[in-house]
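Input (structure):
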């Protein structure tokens, strides 16, 4: 009976979100793919609190951004999409006690600035912490995205942590992402 009481106590305390974990994990995966792969920002206004904070790049360069509210976050993603085609693959997602952590491998195809003559675009470092790229190079970024939730399971804070970036050269986003997709499928099959 003592064991049953411990389980009941745990499920009504720190592990009260256990029944929602799979749904939260699926929501986070779908959200990231909607925002980055499809430029669908409706999930930002639906799932984030109005006073949400998003932190990007502070862990690797101290040249990151701290964004506040829906409009600043949507503008950030719009600007990023302006110069890149993006394909995000969520590899592993873990939800626990008000936090969702997603390990992603994201592929960015550098399109240069639309006002530049694409054929004359020179190699450049488009973002702090990125390697130099030229027109149509594909960059692979390994990232961890951490969502902190409030009591209503809405996102109150997001942090993007970059683990590593490499220039893969010219090629297809889909072809480069194939290995990441296979890794994701293998991990999902084990869970």
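Output (sequence):
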């Amino acid at each position: 009976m003592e064991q049953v009481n411990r389980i009941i106590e745990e499920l009504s305390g720190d592990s009260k979100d256990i029944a929602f974990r799979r749904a939260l994990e699926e929501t986070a995966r779908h959200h990231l793919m909607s925002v980055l792969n499809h430029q669908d920002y409706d999930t930002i206004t639906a799932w984030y609190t109005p006073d949400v904070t998003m932190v990007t790049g502070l862990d690797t360069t101290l040249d990151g951004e701290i964004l506040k509210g829906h409009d600043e976050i949507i503008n950030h993603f719009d600007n990023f999409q302006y110069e890149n085609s993006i394909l995000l693959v969520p590899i592993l997602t873990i939800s626990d006690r008000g936090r969702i952590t997603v390990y992603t491998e994201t592929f960015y195809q550098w399109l240069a600035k639309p006002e530049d003559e694409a054929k004359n675009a020179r190699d450049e470092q488009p973002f702090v912490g990125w390697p130099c790229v030229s027109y149509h190079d594909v960059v692979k970024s390994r990232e961890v995205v951490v969502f902190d939730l409030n009591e209503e399971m809405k996102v109150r804070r997001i942090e993007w942590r970059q683990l590593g970036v490499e220039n893969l050269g010219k090629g297809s986003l889909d072809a480069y992402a194939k290995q990441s997709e296979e890794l994701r499928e293998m991990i999902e099959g084990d869970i």
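Notes: The domain at 2-190 is CATH 3.10.450.50 (Nuclear Transport Factor 2; Chain: A,). The helical segments are 2-11, 21-38, 42-47, 69-83, 173-190.
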